[in-house]
Design goal:
The chain is mainly alpha-helical. Helix 1 runs antiparallel to helix 2, helix 3 runs antiparallel to helix 4 and helix 4 runs antiparallel to helix 5. The chain is globular, with a radius of gyration of 27 Å.
Length: about 300
Amino acid sequence: MSKNNKRTYLLYLLAAPIVAAVAIVLRSVALLSDYDAALGYFDGRALPIAMAALLVTVIAVLAVLTHELRGFFVATTDYRDLPTLFSGIYLGIALVFFGVTLAVSAIGSFSAPLFSPVASVAALLAALSLLCGAGLFAVRAFDGRAVGPARAMLTLAPAVGAVLYTLYLHLDPAVRINEPNKMLAAVAWIAVAFFFLGEARIALLRAKWALHTYVTAVTVMLSATLCLPNLLYEAVHGTSLLGSTAADFAMLGVFLYATARLVAAYLAAIRAETAEGQYITDFTVTREPLPTEEDAPTDSEEDSDEEALDR
């Protein structure tokens, strides 16, 4: 890996947490200063527009870099590193609480005045999928292997749950359709679905590592931008923006887990580069040394060799 490509690759991997931090600050300030909870919109649009422009621009730039650097991405099929282990355990627990809360909310909505049967069914199916997805992290807490059809099926469960929860958010009559927080939540959960779909492809040995690393970086940015300002707003005002604190904690778990996988991808690239450099060094050291002037044959030796040939 050349020095320029190495710097670009490092910039690619560090862009996600840096941009996420900036987006978190922008959205947090906007929620605490310009958000009108009664209407569901922001009084001032400068900060939300700046946040959206930043995310869209960086996501587009990372897409270009992904195509240009697709040959430098390294496979990471090991889930036994400590960041992945602990973030996975937290995510599994958060998915259990979120699934139970979502199921209870869906059952209670059958008797609500604004009853939507499609939204309630979507919420129930999403809850079941998320509860099944929590089993994946229970398995990985004891076995960090990634490959296998059973693991692929378990990994698909949170992806399906994320899509169904996005459908529930869209159909939920309690939240306005065009509310900015709802739109951001829908986009973030769709990114989560693609992230776990890529994880399922890893389990089936059909992973596209460049694309999966890109989706992981996008998931880190969107999940952090959604959950952390939401939790801060609830801590200050005592109410959840979208009516589910468990959803924000589950998204926090996704953020931690995706960040752990991004760090694992970077460390795998560093190890691969080190191994390649070590191979080149070993090859150089163990080559046959070039002959020196002292090793060159003398004139008498050359004459004796010619006499031997004449005989």
